[in-house]
Specification:
two-stranded antiparallel sheet
Length: about 525
């Protein structure tokens, strides 16, 4: 394993994130890429300037990058499978309000028994602000991640208004008409053209455009697609990844080696938002893997590559329903098979991006074991290089020290004992386990005199708990304070962190390493 990554194109990293958001929204991979292609075609027809076209390019790829921010809550509402629910509801995103509500009631948790299904419908109807809270959180997280990727202010501002509508009934701010960023006006129509044409053919897509023109959609954008959309769809081609990469409007953006780790940390947080139990996992594994690589004698270049691979090792988790990740009881055979797919999904996303492809092989092996008992390939022994074994051991140790739905976090000493037992059983070799445990023993952080954004220690305690998905009453019970006091703390946290939603606060906690005591 060598350090093969220097300066690269930011578009490549963004394309990988787009593929991951397809997984996270229940869409076929390349949905976002095809949307981007259609958006660019429309931008030329509309005569948009170069800066707007560049903004639109990245917005089309990243519009749904906030999708993991409330995946667990969506799974609870939908009966466990947030991905299937997202896929079912996708055609209604910019529908007229009455049409959308009827569709929602008809399809919510439709696989559950009638009594349980009606309970979920009643719960959803009792919270009229549910959609606003959900989509506003998506917008805030998307904008914050875009900042960390180094994207232009115009891209971040557009993503912060990803669900606005022409008629002013969108989110988060109810912008109307030309107040809605042009990138959002174009991308919203392009996305629905791709979705409806794929599902029902061009005539159905055209009918939807006409029906929603002046409501969800900008009429001028609709006119462009009605006139040319069928031809644009045919021109996407069989390799939209290459087509979209080649079509990036000038100037082509790059990510330098010294900025790559920060960008990959944003990808890590995108993946770890998938479940309250994962938040902070990927960055924690990366820190541990880097320290273990140094202890094991890997070169500086190999250590750098391993750390970067660790940051993105679990991006495939977004393609598994949150109801599986958050399940407190045993998994069914079918659920377990879906869990076993996530390293494959990570590998698939990374391999489609030249900038991240050097990490794909080691990422694909992070659940393999020396005796062949791991997944998804069942690789063993000499098939596993030291870097892959270090990542696997670091991932296993770190996971054991985190809460999971079926157990509480293990003490570091207990996690170490279990890892050593795995050596005795032949699942790990002594080399990687010794290095990981050596690194874990040296990983104690010095106490911080000052917390980020001026947060107090109590505010950090509250933030950590709400980032884990705890309700105000649960936080109050855990900390021995009143729910009203918790509410005051949350208000202060939002003000200091510069956020307005729990999703934004959660990402702030992850960005600043506050998830672990």
């Amino acid at each position: 394993m060598t350090d093969q990554v220097g300066a690269g194109r930011l578009a490549e990293l963004t394309i990988a994130l787009s593929l991951a958001t397809d997984l996270g929204t229940g869409q076929p991979m390349e949905h976002g890429l095809r949307t981007c292609w259609l958006s660019l075609a429309a931008s030329e027809e509309l005569g948009l300037d170069a800066a707007t076209r560049s903004c639109l390019y990245y917005v089309a790829l990243l519009r749904f990058v906030g999708c993991t921010s409330d995946a667990s809550e969506t799974a609870v509402l939908a009966g466990g499978d947030d991905l299937a629910f997202n896929a079912v509801m996708a055609p209604m995103l910019l529908a007229r309000s009455g049409e959308s509500m009827r569709y929602f009631v008809r399809h919510l948790a439709e696989d559950l028994p009638l009594r349980r299904r009606m309970g979920r419908v009643a719960r959803a109807m009792a919270d009229p602000g549910m959609q606003r809270h959900s989509l506003s959180g998506h917008c805030e997280v998307a904008a914050r991640l875009a900042v960390r990727l180094g994207l232009a202010d115009a891209v971040c501002e557009a993503l912060a208004h990803a669900y606005e509508r022409w008629d002013g009934n969108g989110y988060p701010d109810g912008l109307a008409g030309e107040e809605v960023p042009m990138a959002i006006r174009v991308v919203a129509v392009a996305r629905d053209v791709e979705l409806w044409a794929r599902r029902a053919g061009w005539p159905a897509a055209r009918d939807v455009l006409v029906h929603r023109s002046g409501h969800g959609y900008d009429p001028a954008v609709v006119d462009a697609f009605v006139a040319h959309g069928e031809r644009w769809l045919a021109e996407v081609g069989d390799d939209p990844c290459a087509a979209v990469l080649d079509a990036e409007p000038a100037p082509v953006l790059t990510v330098e080696p010294d900025g790559l780790d920060g960008a990959l940390a944003a990808v890590a947080d995108f993946a770890d938002l998938k479940s309250p139990f994962f938040r902070g996992h990927s960055t924690g594994v990366a820190d541990l893997a880097v320290a273990a690589a140094s202890a094991a004698g890997l070169s500086a270049a190999e250590t750098t590559t391993l750390g970067r691979a660790a940051l993105v090792h679990d991006v495939g988790r977004v393609g598994v329903p949150s109801g599986i990740w958050d399940r407190p009881g045993p998994l069914s055979a079918e659920q377990w098979e879906r869990v076993r797919l996530h390293p494959y999904l990570s590998e698939r996303v990374l391999n489609r991006c030249g900038l991240l492809a050097p990490f794909a092989d080691v990422v694909a092996l992070h659940h393999e074991r020396a005796d062949g008992s791991g997944y998804h390939r069942g690789a063993s022994g000499g098939q596993l290089a030291l870097g892959a074994r270090l990542l696997a051991a670091a991932d296993a140790y770190h996971a054991m020290t985190e809460d999971r739905p079926h157990r509480s976090a293990l003490a570091p000493s207990d996690a170490a004992s279990q890892l050593l037992e795995a050596v005795d059983a032949g699942r790990f070799a002594p080399a990687e386990v010794d290095a990981v445990l050596d690194a874990a023993g040296q990983a104690t952080r010095p106490a911080r005199v000052a917390r980020p954004a001026g947060l107090t220690e109590r505010e950090v305690d509250v933030l950590r708990l709400i980032a884990r998905g705890r309700a105000n009453k649960e936080v109050a019970a855990t900390l021995g304070i009143s729910p009203k006091t918790v509410g005051h703390h949350i208000e202060h946290i939002y003000a200091k962190a510069g956020v307005t939603t729990r999703a934004g606060a959660t990402l702030f906690a992850m960005e600043h390493g506050l998830m672990s005591p």
